[in-house]
Amino acid sequence: MGLIRFVAMPTETARAFQRGATDAYGLLPERKVCTDDGFQCRHCLRHIKVGSACLTLSYRPFPELQPYAETGPILLCAEECERAVETDVMPEIYRAGTEWLLRGYGHDDRIVYGTGAVTPKQHICTRAHELLQREDVAYLHLRSAKNNCYQCRIERA
Asked: In this structure, what are the phi and psi dihedrals at residue 22, rounded to the nearest 5 degrees?
């Protein structure tokens, strides 16, 4: 077993959106046809197949509103999909990018200052392990280095 684990969006959350629940802004998810092989589902952590329906919605991966509870756009498979297995192996969809933003959050769900950095993909697991050794860091977010979009959560194994 590894020292870290990549954690996808909870199934209950994904199912709610796939079944028509409103997003973090109180809007219905936008349904469209996937036209690009770069669309990534935050639940199955796979590329959404070109020609398949997908959802675009605002997502807040925090339990409650507070100043550090970032909200942003994500994509999901429009149809129900299997949740990605929690693993210490970086999901394949994140190996294609060159750099990612890795940021630590405390037990109070606030950013731990000094933990955020654009990180080359080959250093994500090492840097995640280093950050999760700190007592003040409860979990990490993996985000797009270019657009800051939430990708997944990284936790201690």
From this structure: -75, 155
Q: Report d(CA 99, CA 18) in Å as an integer.
A: 29
| β-strands 139-144, 150-156 pairing | antiparallel
Q: Report in angstroms the alpha-carbon separations of 27 from 48, 61, 81.
A: 22, 16, 22
Q: Which amino acid is at 137?
A: V
Q: Are 43 and 84 in contact (CB under 8 A)?
A: yes
Residue 119, C-beta contacts closer than 8 angstroms, at least 6 positions apart: 99, 100, 101, 102, 127, 145
pLDDT for the residue 98: 83
Measure the CA–CA gap between 13 and 81, rounded to whole angstroms.
12
CATH topology of domain 10-77: first zn-finger domain of poly(adp-ribose) polymerase-1 (3.30.1740)
Q: Tens of pLDDT along 25-55?
A: 999 999 999 998 889 999 999 999 999 999 9
Q: Where in the chain is the domain with CATH 3.30.1740?
A: 10-77
Residue 36 confidence (pLDDT): 86
Percent of the chain with pLDDT over 70: 99
The tokens of 50 are what?
A: 């070109």
Q: What is the pTM of this model?
A: 0.94
